[in-house]
């Protein structure tokens, strides 16, 4: 038997669904009511991005990426999965990247219009990350503390940021800023698929829509 | 087995040991089963020592991090394992927090005399074999492991040499190698032939029987203990049987005492003369009890084993 072809996706996920969803729940329990602040700042970031204050809008998500790296990946997820520390490193890199972009103004789209289709896609993805994602667990019968919230949990942080970069960035910088959020959504989607969670489909759908937005904005900016 | 709690050999264990040694000397391999008041035991690695034929795996199921609720739930599973005569518990540095969870459970329950602690060394975990073993002993909170295996043959030459040295020094009791999913069997065969190992761990279940061709006969010939991992094929065998709502064949209870599919699948594995024990993993106390019942007599005869395999093939 060929050693590599014998591996299945589930061989790389060393925990059960029960453990993973309890982890999300414990994040919620531990940091409540920080959720209110992160959601308010997420909404503020969206407004800033749409009102041409893109550099400050680019800066605001950075501390949340660093927070998720430390509180979620380094302190909790890494105990379950030896690869968790590397993902945490990637989240720190994203935080630094957002700070550098904000400080230098590299790739800023200083006049995003909500009527512009890729920007509209960005707004929809951002609102989905901020409003719909926290409701998914409670609406599907899970406890409220399992609600995944921007700035606290990895998935809505990645989704919301993906939406925001579609609004406030353009050109090569847009793709650079989208890489880590997109890769995490792939990893998380595959994880949820192994855990038999319908959340996998949601993440892959968001990713596909975001990809359409990224390509659209890149093509439009070249015209 | 040297753990932080002193080990006394009880009268029952002494009798078991003497009985099993006599059996090992006088009877063919197939009759190395010893019934010790429920859970059956087998001698292993030509030592005359015995192990309960149902052990416990920890892949995925015991990786609960530092969640207090789940730590207590897994402690209950370990408690049920020992209450039902369990012995070998297998873990790995690749299993996330599973070694720490074992440490927590043993701290809560005390370290039973019957524990046969089996760990692994694995290159991506970092550090030399010695460093890894020392770290894992701290995590389990035991003084010494009964068995340390090279996980999935990673850097096996270096690791095995280090483990052999540690065995010679008396800092570990037995050494072994592992594989799963039928991977790298020819390399496993070479190591079993050329190296002095006590255990080999491999995938063997009713739908994955490749090991019967060469590895299991070789293990018998060389006196190497065999630990069967993935007894339910990662849970998919039980899931599929439940999904099909397939009834157990009527003869299964009369001939080999099977009252559940778990019994059926586990008894098939542990009744192979070369298999020392199977290591099903579970998060549920009830499933643990079900697994442990499969270690009780009667065991299927060679004919019954053939019918068991044919039954699963026909579904």
TrEMBL record, chain A:
Membrane-spanning residues: 30-49, 56-74, 86-107, 119-137, 172-192, 198-216
Keywords: Membrane, Transmembrane, Transmembrane helix
Keyword Lipoprotein tagged: no
Entry protein name: MFS transporter permease
Species: Vreelandella arcis
UniProtKB/TrEMBL annotation, chain B:
Matching InterPro entries: AKR2_Oxidoreductase (IPR053135), NAD(P)_OxRdtase_dom_sf (IPR036812), NADP_OxRdtase_dom (IPR023210)
Domain NADP-dependent oxidoreductase residues, every copy: 54-301
CDD domains: AKR_PA4992-like
UniProt KW keywords: Signal
Superkingdom, natural source: Bacteria
Annotated signal peptide: 1-34
Keyword Signal: yes
PANTHER family: D-THREO-ALDOSE 1-DEHYDROGENASE (PTHR43312), NADP-DEPENDENT OXIDOREDUCTASE DOMAIN-CONTAINING PROTEIN (PTHR43312:SF1)
Annotated protein name in UniProt: Aldo/keto reductase
Provenance organism: Vreelandella arcis
Taxonomic path: Bacteria, Pseudomonadati, Pseudomonadota, Gammaproteobacteria, Oceanospirillales
């Amino acid at each position: 038997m060929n050693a590599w072809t014998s591996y299945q996706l589930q061989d790389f996920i060393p925990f059960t669904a029960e453990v993973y969803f309890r982890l999300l729940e414990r994040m919620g329990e531990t940091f409540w009511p920080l959720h209110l602040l992160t959601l308010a700042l997420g909404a503020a970031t969206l407004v800033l991005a749409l009102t041409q204050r893109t550099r400050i809008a680019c800066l605001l998500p950075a501390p949340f990426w660093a927070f998720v790296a430390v509180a979620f990946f380094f302190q909790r997820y890494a105990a379950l999965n030896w690869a968790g520390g590397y993902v945490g490193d990637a989240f720190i890199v994203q935080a630094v990247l957002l700070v550098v972009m904000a400080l230098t103004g590299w790739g800023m789209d200083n006049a995003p219009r909500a009527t512009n289709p890729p920007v509209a896609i960005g707004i929809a993805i951002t609102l989905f990350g901020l409003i719909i994602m926290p409701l998914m667990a409670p609406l599907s019968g899970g406890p409220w503390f399992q609600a995944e919230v921007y700035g606290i949990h990895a998935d809505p942080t990645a989704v919301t940021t993906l939406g925001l970069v579609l609004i406030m960035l353009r050109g090569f910088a847009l793709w650079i800023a989208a890489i880590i959020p997109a890769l995490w959504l792939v990893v998380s989607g595959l994880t949820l698929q192994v855990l038999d969670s319908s959340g996998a489909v949601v993440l892959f759908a968001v990713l596909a829509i975001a990809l359409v937005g990224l390509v659209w904005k890149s093509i439009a900016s070249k015209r | 087995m040297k753990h932080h709690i002193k080990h006394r050999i009880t009268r029952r264990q002494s009798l078991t040991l003497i009985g099993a040694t006599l059996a090992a000397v006088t009877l063919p391999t197939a009759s190395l089963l010893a019934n010790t008041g429920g859970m059956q035991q087998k001698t292993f690695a030509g030592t005359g020592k015995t192990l309960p034929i149902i052990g416990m795996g920890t892949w995925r199921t015991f990786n609960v991090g530092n969640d207090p609720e789940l730590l207590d739930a897994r402690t209950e599973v370990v408690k049920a394992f020992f209450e039902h005569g369990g012995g070998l518990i297998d873990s790995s540095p690749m299993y996330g927090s599973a070694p720490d969870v074992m440490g927590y459970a043993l701290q809560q329950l005390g370290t039973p005399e019957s524990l046969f602690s089996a760990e692994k060394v694995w290159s991506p975990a970092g550090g030399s074999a010695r460093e890894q073993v020392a770290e894992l002993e701290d995590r389990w909170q035991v003084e010494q492991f009964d068995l340390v295996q090279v996980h999935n043959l990673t850097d096996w030459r270096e690791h095995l040499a280090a483990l052999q040295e540690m065995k010679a020094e008396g800092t570990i009791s037995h050494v072994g190698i592992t594989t799963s999913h039928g991977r790298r069997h020819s390399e496993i065969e070479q190591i079993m032939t050329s190296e002095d190992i006590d255990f080999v761990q491999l995938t063997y279940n009713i739908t994955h029987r490749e090991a019967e061709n060469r590895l299991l006969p070789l293990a018998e010939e060389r006196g190497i203990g065999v630990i069967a991992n993935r007894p339910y094929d990662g849970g998919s065998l039980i899931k599929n049987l439940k999904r099909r709502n397939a009834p157990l064949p009527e003869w299964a209870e009369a001939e080999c005492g099977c009252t559940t599919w778990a019994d059926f699948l586990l008894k098939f594995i542990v009744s192979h003369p070369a298999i020392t024990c199977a290591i099903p993993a579970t998060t549920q106390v009830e499933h643990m009890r079900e697994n442990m019942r499969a270690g009780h007599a009667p065991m299927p005869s060679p004919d019954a084993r053939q019918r068991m395999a044919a039954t699963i093939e026909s579904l």
